[in-house]
């Protein structure tokens, strides 16, 4: 990133200059005034014709807001190219830039979605600006060129893109040409005219131009801007330049060689050795050259106009890019070991903890072993930030044998896992496991434990994506045995007590001990400090727990954050549960079936763009069928049933959600025998997989189905459900099965078949159906102490006054109000006061 910024600042630092002198060349009637009338401007000319200088002069004169990006070799891949374009795009607010960066770095990246979103932002904010892409000839990737073409065609006419380079890449312009939206500027628009040459000689060389001198310079330079630049550089060392010939690049190279040769040997060596760098710092240059006099040398070179300082980052410099090109060619002709210079640059950046730059210079040196070591070192951070494509690109360039080596092999497994290929990741993980178990690799005991922890953390996450509860728990337990602090590659992914909790409580039909899961995740709350995969699963789990316990405001807060992470990383194992929970929340708590349908439709669109496996589509379609069940849409239920029976998947843990939906579907159509048949087949599976929530749900459905005709058996099924759920306080699982559950529970209470320790729990479930006004239902949710606090709130008292009146600490009062807000589904005191205005406080007065 430092070099990217320096590249941009190099352009800004040398605006409107040839050598060290200002020249104004753009005339009111020139071709440059037409840029604002076209979406695309192409500026194509050989090196040294002043493309950059002329664009800077135009940028200084236009009323448009202009962004500038100079491409480097490392910018030609998709993520790097678009990330740089977004950062330099003028006119967009910071939030929109962040959203575009999230899309481009998402594992579920879709070019169509990305371009459409970008153009929508340009129109929404009425952006009138231009983006200049310099050195565009480096961009040769067909995919990025195709996407740029799409952007040009779809973006509003108020925005302009200008590409500048030595040759024209394969950018399709047919449609834009038909619309007359392309301006083509070539070499003939850049060459110096005789009039400009005269002005240059008079103003900047301080000589009176004779016709012979002008004709000589025009003839020799052919209007080549670099020729004038070299004259200015040369006159600092030699007085007589009348015999110089600039008719071709070879002569120019010879001239620069003469300039360099005229310098002292230490300065000459400094120039040549540091020409490998895109940007330079005195400490970096000293390390490469092996000198301690770099500060003195760089000050002298800057004085002579050979260095340009980065204005935003003092201490960082760049060469004039044409001068640097010739220096590198001179370096190639020397016997210097250039690869060693690249390695020294890589080592310096590694020591400075700038590992991405260290990797780039290791690539340039061709030191693949060093690249591998740096990748292993940097991979945890890249994975944490979701930069999977960057890792995939680098690993793909390495020889195939490298991914079968242990450390890089584990990283490769993570990359494949996060690119929606858990089966491939699983096979690779097994190969790595075999290497460790054979113990052929000579590791210390500590290293071996670390590798096992990394490996089993990977395998637990693969199992999590495949919705395999038992395997997830097994692998997580093994990871914790080898390293109690979990793995560096997915921090906290298995940081829960393996004795007290099962895997995440998932709407896919997973779940377990809700109280234990809550305790564990409450303890881990302080570790959720930023956007990471773990924080997504954390917020999804907390939202699901709050949903089960009827805490509407808490559901909303955690669900919003889970959805943000799900959209960012695009992992089906996170994306699908988050969107299904959102749809359930909209349908069951807000009564908005249409919005729930739209949510699931958006989910299917995202899964289509990410090219994910069919298993996740089946879960999304099953969730859509549950909405149809809720609405009584028998036609849609029957259509889904016919397709399900035709393509019936194996009955296993990862298909549990679809099979429970199947039970619901048969129940909704009145086909009790078929529903019972599948319940009997599913119960052993969920017991074996420790799917407590699924087991409770099946018992409740069974009780509802049996109650009209086999009452005793229905009561037994409900008692089984209560036995499993009482300690964990499952609530919504009972509520969503309708008023038949209320009748069964009332009968159990009246016949005293509910254990005394569970009676308050059953009363809490029954309160959901309590008759009365909305105020009475709200009142049933509050305890006597909570009613007292709400009463004092109605009197307009502050927290400290309430604490004094009720003889409570201020902290306790705040905790009580937090609970009250959750029960009432409000966010603040004002909303709570308005909602509780009709409550009956007679019992506490």
UniProtKB/TrEMBL annotation:
Highest rank taxon of the organism: Bacteria
Domain HTH luxR-type: from-to ranges: 775-840
Listed InterPro entries: AAA_22, P-loop_NTPase, Sig_transdc_resp-reg_C-effctor, TPR-like_helical_dom_sf, TPR_MalT, Tscrpt_reg_LuxR_C, WH-like_DNA-bd_sf, WHD_MalT
Signal peptide from the UniProt entry: none
Keyword flag Metal-binding: no
Keyword Glycoprotein appears in the UniProt entry: no
Gene3D superfamilies hit by this protein: P-loop containing nucleotide triphosphate hydrolases, Tetratricopeptide repeat domain, Winged helix-like DNA-binding domain superfamily/Winged helix DNA-binding domain
Alphabetic keyword roster: DNA-binding, Transcription, Transcription regulation
Protein name (Swiss-Prot/TrEMBL): HTH luxR-type domain-containing protein
Species of provenance: Terribacillus saccharophilus
Lineage: Bacteria, Bacillati, Bacillota, Bacilli, Bacillales
